[in-house]
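Q: Could you fold this chain for me?
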Amino acid sequence: MPKKSPIFPGPRTARGAVLAVLLSNAEQAGAEPLRARVTLAAIVRALKRKYHWPIETSSFPSNAIDGRATWATVYSLPEEVIAAALDGHGRDWLHSAGGGAPDV
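A: Sure. Below is the predicted structure, expressed as structure tokens.
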């Protein structure tokens, strides 16, 4: 099966907001579910499956603020994917999403 090219979601959507953070290569702390029903993990899953972004996931044990044991997950895009996306129409898309395109 041939590799599919990544597709940019609508820039003003939750998926677009998450992709903008990933493309800017910025760090973002965990967030509460959007409108109490969509988690970051669900958005990342949609970006991977429906939009074909090769998002890398790494999880590690952590402690919650109340002392409970939990897992923390970090999502990222490979540098070459970010560079290729920004060389395409990604810079314009990133500006329309409300973020500035990084200088890569």
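A (continued): The beta strands are 56-63, 69-76.
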